[in-house]
Amino acid sequence: MGRSGKLIGPMSLVWTLGVAVGAVVFMAGALNLGTAVARWTGSQVAMALFLPVSVLLGIAAWMLVLAAAWRLRRNYLRRAGIAMSAVVAESDLRYKYRSGPLNVSLWQVRVEVHFPHPDSGADARVQKQYFYPEFRKVKARALAERLCVGASVPVVVHKNSALFDIPKRPVWTDIW
Q1: Phi and psi (nearest 5°) for 146?
Q2: Of 1, 36, 94, 143, which has the highest C-beta tally within 10 A?
């Protein structure tokens, strides 16, 4: 528990660094696999396309790995943690316009909840962010309305870790 009352554990840093290193290693493996398949086929087309195909498939597979890790963690916390109710202290819905080659704009829902920690009784705060692409703005607004200031939100707490017990997965850097 940090001085500010936030649930801050070393797992957040481990997770963020682990995901970054894991992404590099995973993508290197995907590129090596793509190279091996292209060489095995002996096709010039396969050799020409292995890089973009390997990158796209590697990114998609990595997102599936992250989703599976989050589900495993969520199931573990549900078994080992304590379910309780928290109160939304801050809630914010923002539109993030991104210009550039991809022109991907996002809706960001940022939520902070307060609750008494079940072990220490001290006031604890947890903050999460959720991003939605432009075409999912209705879902972003629905989540922001559901998690408005003063609303009650189910959380699962285990030691220095807390999880909003809602089905939407937070941003990959904010899962822990």
Answers
A1: -65, -35
A2: 143
pTM to 2 decimals? Answer: 0.70
pLDDT recorded at residue 166: 78
Other beta carbons within 10 Å of 91: 20
Indicate if the pLDDT at residue 102 is higher than 90.
no
Q: SS3 string of the chain? A: CCCCCECCCHHHHHHHHHHHHHHHHHHHHHHHHHHHHHHHHCCHHHHHHHHHHHHHHHHHHHHHHHHHHHHHHHHHHHHHCEEEEEEEEEEEEEEECCCCCCCCCEEEEEEEEEEECCCCCCEEEEEEEEEEEHHHHHHHHHHHHHCCCCCEEEEEEECCEEEECCCCCCCHHHCC
